[in-house]
């Protein structure tokens, strides 16, 4: 029998870029086929071709042995191909059923929407595949994991046989990931086929039947999970050997550098985002803030660094009160800050690398004398940092917008770590970066820790938190529900806390045993 | 939320600014081979504009239709003839007729020499207000504000410097002239400060507020010229004559009007360049303009810089007005500006918001405009064609994508840079 989907020699060129270079891919019916690769490797381009968003320059697509051309997402859906995007396409104020019906509205004889019939179908699908979704619930009230199931139901409602899931685990807690995997199994058991896009090695090994690794637009190879391990996959992805485990030297925490007391912070809509949060970070210590995205971490970090108004509470830096102090004061006291949104806050993209490297010290000698900029000093400084931090750029005059994400982040890291600092605040320092860049940035952060710098690390990547932190603070709905020493911070335990399970209950559920990290 | 705390979200103005930044000439792209796109695109836009202009000239020419009425060949000949004659007239009207210059120099007749060289110098005179106003808008763009109010600021600057110019009597030039110029700058600065302050403090968009400020300035000028500042005994709404001690000195006798203002404008272009690129003030202004969030992160005061930019922009536009009344007209009338403030938006775009670019663009514009008069006379081309020509050039400049696709140029930045330096693993 012919495979349900076959891509032959797919090639896609963008001006100056070969995004896909003669890619072959075969998906058997009932298979979970993982597509693994770094950011920019060409996974998304390939899937966008399959979904009809791009036209390939060369190559053919076969479905059930039949050659097809896909001009639009509508074509793709008609061919039984459905895609769940990384960012959900749901309307929050509609119910599950209404969201599912959108674009496929079934009407009664009188032309009105037939919500009941649609809801019944949603319920049927939900039961058939174990999706557990209430058809009448409003999407805005659903947790992220359930919203994702709504997206899957949308595809099944349209009778998709091939499901493309683009980085589906990025927004989920570890428990939600497990649930998703159960659903994926149930889908393939009942004859659906899945393409699972990811850059997380562990997950790919756990769920996939076949793993195809893509690097720089080419298929590096396909392996079965039982033949592979994380090291092999990582080196296939990156093209060289990669260290996955970090050596974390022991470090003696010193005096408290950052003290946060009963902090209250509101978000843009005026809702309480940080709710009576207290903690401190000592020199030579990494405090990790774990939590599912949107639980107040962003607001907390912004408040500490002077970018968001603090309603109540106190922030002390080296014993000095910096509550609602301007960012520059906090910076000058010795704070390095790697912001969450590197392109929005951390860089001025239309400026050269050289200018971005002095973004927070431009007014000081040797970069400025009085009001005069000393561009020669700026250039020399930039050239030294480019070398020291291995920033891959043609030269220091290159605009930051022309750098890859990893190199943009390196510009920020170089700028923030090259100053004498006492506190490093790093928010999602490796989000969206490739394995090599992540490895590098982690080493840099650990090095600062060894030098006695206090590090506050916020990340939604639980692996990252667990690898780096000396203590883990878990945020849930604006509160720190627990601060756990590294030795007791197991993935399961922290995962339960992230999902809002109270600490005592979480402890009971994992059987109270202290579990090793990772 | 307090608008002071949050930089504004990107809006239409920001989008335009972002598009501009892609072709911005700072920093010098030293690694690129050949002509950088920041030069190539305006150049191609001008050439394309002239080609389109030729088409308009042909389409509006009676001779061409008459020629085609006779025969196809005659039609083609008429087409060539009318375009060649028009552009020749444009050229001599703008820069002078070389034959006439040589003859004049040989004859040794001073008046004739002045007349022969006048077109070129008159082009510089026409260019001068464009330089001032173009710098005003460019400085605003660099700081992320879209100053559409240059025209209004120019009027206010003209009013204040005219007032100082005729009201103060008996001062020596060395005091009176700087005072009158300063008054123009301050008037414009005030008119720029108000929308700048409104934007920074309330979030009110400067595009709307500067347009409104323009109307206020126009009506205010009309009222002043028909009332308090009306020339005694005159039936026209014009101000009294400005004292000669406040005139920008001219370098030659009549009919040459070439005056000091041109050199002031060039000097100011250098000052603006120095300010923007060589001082921390300029660095802050440009950072705020390119990314207000990044500016806040860098510890800069976004509010203060926005107000500062609008104020400085207004001052430059005010000087454009002062330059016209003190250098050319020596009194104020409603018609003293032929839309310099509005054209300057286009000039800033054409010059990539760089002072050098603005000067070059202004010279081009002043020259085109000056030559247009002559073209109308000797080639019987409606002056509107010139406006069409300018509009077409601008349309191409403002939308570099058109030029890029016409001439199959590749888009700079992201795309190509990204791939050559992609990844740092392998």
Automatic annotation (TrEMBL), chain A:
Keywords: ATP-binding, Nucleotide-binding. Residues 5-241, 258-502 form the ABC transporter domain. GO terms for molecular function: ATP binding. This is ABC transporter ATP-binding protein. It comes from Thermanaerothrix solaris.
From TrEMBL, chain B:
Its main location: membrane. InterPro entries: ABC_transp_permease. The chain crosses the membrane at residues 39-59, 171-194, 256-276, 344-365, 385-403. It is found in: Cell membrane. It holds the Pfam family BPD_transp_2. Coiled coil: none annotated. Keywords: Cell membrane, Membrane, Transmembrane, Transmembrane helix. It is a multi-pass membrane protein. PANTHER family: ABC TRANSPORTER, PERMEASE PROTEIN (PTHR47089), GUANOSINE ABC TRANSPORTER PERMEASE PROTEIN NUPP (PTHR47089:SF1). This is ABC transporter permease. The lineage of its organism: Bacteria, Bacillati, Chloroflexota, Anaerolineae, Anaerolineales.
